[in-house]
Amino acid sequence: MRYGDTTAVDGLSLTVEPGTVTAVLGPNGAGKTTTIETCEGYRSPQEGKVRVLGLDPVRDATRLRPRVGVMLQSGGAWSASYPHEMLRYVSRLYADPLDVDALIERLGLGTVGRTPYRRLSGGQQQRLALATALVGRPELVFLDEPTAGLDPQARRATWELVDELRASGVTVVLSTHFMDEAERLADWVHVLDHGRLIASGTPKSLTSEGAENTLRLSGPPGIDVSGLLTALPAGFQVVEQAPGAYLVSGTIDPPLLQSVTTWFAGQDILLDGIAVRRRTLEDVFLDLTGRELRS
Question: What is the span of the domain harbouring residue 126?
């Protein structure tokens, strides 16, 4: 897909497996929105082929619409519409919609039924957009930044709803800038940059490659780290990085934690803090796409 001299999507090839939550990640301008809008049928690819549930999203749009839910980042609602009326109208377009009242209650929209859409808060607009994407019981749902602007309670409720969708067999394609959200929800992650697929895998596989796997301890300065080292299996390193700040490097697992705490208990030393440091999806994302801001 090109816009003038700009190639937004450049020979991209990826697959989403049924019944999974797949996160599509990338910095601004990476081609995420163009890719997802092409899969939703809003754009026709200039080259290549797209199939959604085995169908062409443009040519077979009439057959696909009853099976696919779309949450637009811009909301897609008429500014003067009332949330409850809009949701009930959308529900009547489907043969077997969800219970509208239950969905309204679940997403915390019960008190805004007579508030025009334009007067809703950003978070309320987001929740209404999510409701309209789900009310038709879709087999596949595209969620574009589903928790942008939501407070922690609403964000957590949205996560629980996505978990329930997966458990019921619904396929979810999720675009988000929140790396913790992708790591928490996704079965599979595709990372895009400059219109190309640059990494793909489960959150665990992506974060385990080259991961920093360390145990950080804080306590009294000058602890005998050589003594601690003798209590640990072969292959570990222990250093005092700064007075009272200790670093244990190796494969950190429950038996290792038990060995460390048992040794300190035997020395009658009370630690001030203990923390396991593992590579996160955000670390992977920044390593792959760079750490500088983009316009």
Answer: 2-206
Does residue 154 form part of some domain? yes
CATH number at residue 191: 3.40.50.300
Asked whether 274 and 263 are in contact (CB, 8 A), the reply is no
**Average pLDDT, integer, range 238-264:** 91
Do 45 and 174 fall within a single domain?
A: yes
* Band of pLDDT at residue 78, cut at 50, 70 and 90: confident
| Rounded Cα–Cα distance for residues 239 and 174 (Å) | 42
Residue 163 lies in a domain: yes
Nearest in space to 212 (alpha carbons), one of 276, 290, 282, 285: 276
Q: At what angle do helices 122-134 and 152-167 cross, to 10 degrees?
A: 10
Q: What is the pLDDT of residues 162-209, one digit of tens each?
A: 999 999 999 999 999 999 999 999 999 999 999 999 999 999 889 876
Torsion, Cα 148 291 205 210, to 10 degrees, reads -150
- Which of 178, 206, 234 is the C-terminal boundary of a domain? 206
Average pLDDT over residues 3-26: 95
Is 179 strand, coil or helix? helix
pLDDT exceeds 60 at position 54: yes
pLDDT tens digit string along 134-170?
A: 999 999 999 988 998 888 998 999 999 999 999 999 9
Is-above-0.90 flag for pTM? no
Residues 53 and 19 reside in one and the same domain: yes
C-alpha pair distances (Å), 39 with each of 53, 129, 241: 10, 18, 50
Do 232 and 117 share a structural domain?
A: no
